[in-house]
Write a structure and sequence with these properties.
The protein has 437 residues and is mainly alpha-helical. The protein has a single domain, classed as A middle domain of Talin 1 (Up-down Bundle). The protein is built from 17 helices and four strands.
Length: 437
């Protein structure tokens, strides 16, 4: 990171730097077989791989490429404007998820099954991020501090929560309609565009890099930019080469073992693509930067809940050469409703701009237990529980909600510090205490 005098810090040295380069090289090596094998498969030089080898090889490549993308995008924040960085990094961060989901949406015209699986992958990614990522950050924070609440506030965080709330409210329309249309794309893309525009107007801040991103960021400017571009291209090539055989391999495993393809695509595929982001969040939280980790995951949820879902009918329409909505059956309607209900509860938790032990346990517990039930009535009941809890929290925090909007409209202030509750006192839902003097 640049020093206060404007000079760049000296390159990271010693064992840490060596480990970072080794980790980067290992990920690059894991990626290498994917584009090579895909080319050999397309040209017929080698026969089709079995389902298990395909999932292992191409799935590992997607995970490794996603790690590289994460490090490269963090490093890129040093060299491009904040507004452009927000757009680029938002797109890059969900590229592995996009590759899988867009492949399924692209092929949905020839396969009704793939239309269902596209929605399954999208809902799984969203619920996994909130149901495991947010509680993980909180409990890592708790292990370090033994404090019962993590306060998350500030201009960018409040904006993210407002736009996440707006996207969640709109996405309840989708299960009512029974499809995802280009109208939905327009609304959700507009929400994301508005979010990016408003956040980009905030004062720029120097990124705090860790791991391989720190080592890349300490390179001389020209070398750093060249490495970032090279890593972007290499990882993007890997992801697009690996997406189709990875998905088809998962479907093949489902057929061979009698496991639901829907379950494999909904949970296993997002787990692979979300792993790097969750890992970075865990590293930040374990190093005492739980606030930064939580803000990152909230922003990622905004990206996935707008860009990812909005992109599905675009791919579906282009592949079919005519404008048409992506259809959903009763299972997909149920999944989107449950995902929207979980999102509403997640937004309600931060109505007080904090998350407590009880709330983190509820997020994790409700997510974990609903995995064991496939009966529609039970899953709609889970959605009802999420909505009831959300209504209760919004009512309880009705006096603090204006603070969220006030912070969202404020620009140029210092980043808020982490605390166990409102400044100057113990965390109390529904009201804030004035700072003690």
């Amino acid at each position: 990171m640049p020093s206060p005098s404007g000079r760049e810090d000296r390159p990271a040295k010693g064992a840490a730097s060596f480990r970072n380069w080794l980790l980067l090289g290992a990920c690059a090596a894991i990626c290498a077989p994917a584009p090579i094998l895909r080319l050999l498969l397309i040209t017929g030089v080698i026969p089709e791989l079995g389902s298990v080898p395909a999932v292992l090889i191409f799935g590992s490549a997607i995970v490794a490429a996603a790690f590289i993308l994460t490090w490269a995008s963090e490093t890129a924040e040093k060299d491009i404007s904040q507004g452009l960085a927000l757009v680029a990094i938002a797109l890059i961060a969900v590229l592995p998820e996009y590759a899988v989901d867009l492949y399924l949406a692209w092929t949905a015209h020839g396969s009704a099954e793939n239309a269902a699986l596209a929605t399954a992958n999208m809902t799984g990614a969203n619920r996994l991020l909130v149901g495991t990522g947010w509680p993980m950050v909180f409990f890592l924070y708790w292990l370090r501090s033994k404090k019962g609440a993590l306060r998350v506030s500030g201009h960018e965080t409040s904006l993210a929560l407002i736009f996440l709330g707006a996207a969640t409210l709109y996405n309840f329309v989708i299960p009512i309609k029974g499809n995802i249309s280009l109208i939905d794309t327009g609304v959700l893309f507009s929400l994301f565009g508005g979010y990016v525009y408003l956040v980009s107007r905030a004062p720029a801040t120097e990124p705090e890099l860790v791991g391989p991103a720190l080592t890349l960021g300490s390179l001389a400017k020209r070398r750093r930019r060249g490495m970032v571009i090279l890593l972007f291209l290499y990882s993007a090539l890997t992801i697009f080469a690996a997406a189709e055989p990875f998905v088809e391999g998962l479907k093949g495993i489902g057929e061979d073992l009698g496991i639901s393809k829907f379950v494999l695509i909904q949970w296993f595929a997002p787990l692979a693509s979300e792993a790097p982001e969750l890992t970075v969040a865990a590293i930040l939280a374990s190093r005492g930067r739980a606030l930064a980790a939580m803000v990152m995951l909230i922003s990622s949820k905004v990206n996935q809940w707008t860009l990812l879902i909005g992109s599905l009918p675009v791919a579906y329409s282009i592949s079919g050469a005519h404008l048409s909505p992506l259809p959903m059956d009763s299972r997909q309607v149920e999944e989107v409703f449950l995902t929207a209900a979980q999102s509403a509860f997640a937004v309600a938790i931060f109505a007080s701009l904090s998350i407590s032990t009880r709330e983190a346990l509820l997020l994790l517990g409700l997510f974990g237990t609903q995995l064991f039930f496939t009966d529609p009535a039970v899953r709609y009941a889970y959605g009802g529980v999420y909505l009831a809890l959300a209504a209760f929290l919004f009512f309880q925090d009705r006096h603090t909600l204006p603070i969220v909007f006030r912070e969202a409209s404020r620009r140029g202030g210092k980043a808020p510090a982490m605390s166990t509750g409102p400044p100057g006192g113990k965390k109390e839902r529904g009201r804030t205490k004035k700072p003690s003097r």
